[in-house]
Amino acid sequence: MIKFSAGLFAVLLLQFTALKAQTLPFGPLKCQGPVPKAFSQSSSTKALQMMQAIDEAQKNNKEISEEQEFALSTTFVIDEILKSGKVLCAI
Predict the structure, then answer these.
(1) Quick one: CA dihedral 26, 32, 36, 38, positive or negative?
(2) Quick check: 54 and 68 in contact, CB under 8 A?
(3) Cβ atoms of 46 and 79 closer than 8 Å
(4) How far lies 73's CA from each of 1, 27, 44, 66, in Å?
(5) Disulfide: which of 29, 48, 57, 79 matches 43 by Cβ 3.0-4.6 Å?
(6) By CB neighbour count within 10 A (0-12 exposed, 13-18 middle, 19+ buried), where does 78 fall?
(7) pTM of the model
(8) Residues in the chain with pLDDT < 70?
(9) Rounded alpha-carbon distances, angstroms, from residue 75 to 23, 24, 47, 69, 72
(10) Helix, strand or coil for residue 83?
């Protein structure tokens, strides 16, 4: 009896959420305004700028190389996400 009640509750809950999700008054999303610079600038240019911005004063070679590696990897990963088509600009 308990299994039946739990199953019935789950089915009713799923039905209710499915009906509610279908009646929301949202339209399609659209981008407006100019394309942000992050989309048009090449990955290598951004990585070069980040590497040049690393302050080498008061740092040893290991810290500098770790920061350069981080700048390179994050720049290319972020650009891959931006240019994948899974990002919608909101300006």
Answers:
(1) positive
(2) yes
(3) yes
(4) 56, 36, 11, 11
(5) 79
(6) middle
(7) 0.52
(8) 1-4, 7-8, 11-25, 88-91
(9) 40, 37, 6, 10, 5
(10) coil
